[in-house]
Amino acid sequence: MTPEEFTGERERAVREARDAGDARLAKEVAKLRRPRLSAWAVNLLAHEAPDRLGGLVELGAELQRAWAEQDRDALAEVTQRRGPLIQELVRLARELAERGGHPLAPSAVLEVERTLDAATVDADAAERVAAGHLVQPLAYTGFAPTPVPKAPARKPGPSEKTPDKAAAPGKTEKTGKTGKTEETAARAGRGKKAAPVRDLEGARRRREEERRERERERRRAEEERRERARAEAAAAAVRAAEEAERHHAEWAAELAQAVRDHEELTGRIADLTARLEEARTALAAADRRRQVAEREESRARRLASTARSRARTATRDTP
Q: Region (Disordered) spans which residues (predicted)?
């Protein structure tokens, strides 16, 4: 059923409920909202390709289970399959919508993708998508499950370095060769000094890398926060628009019913007015006939009285 067909079917159902005297049902049916185009496209997937959509729902269950168990390998494997499957279903939804006479705009395609994405990370969203009765697109605003990174290998600190055996104290003092001993001791001393310097430089590099990583994490978190805020604002705007559309649909249905009632009553008034005019005409004609009958009855009564008088007179005069 296309969005336009939905509106017509809803109005027909409202009329039937009212004709049957079920005002409550008519009111409930009138509240049913026309689905957004993106939600309609996802519903097409549920009705036209339930097996393929069911595969996405099953993948979502695997993803949520791997995340709950912190199974890094399983999470990475499911995440790798998730993106291509969503894109495949988005392409199918676009084909079905175009086949149904309603090509999807880029914004509607994005809403379809977000709805399918929500179905993989939220069980309630998955159930609603699989049911095929959406009236608006869905969006998941929480943190999506992602592979758990491996903990970096810990490098030993300066104090954990193995002492240089060549620089062990006491061995050069027993050689008896003063010049070579001093030179060897000097080299050993330089080696001892260089090792801590290298360790400190490595520690500084590690700290700098950790600082950069923390900054990257902070930026990613900030971007995710902004994205969630944008998504929530967009969702709120969509909900407000849909609520306004629902109110408009309700009042449009109420107006249509009021127009029908007005036309019906106007027709009844016209019929009653015509019948009243006919009755008035008949009453006037009856009144005229009554007046004529009264005159004729009075005249006939006088004639009858005169005739009786003459008859009596004639009877007396007869010998």
A: 1-20, 141-248, 284-319
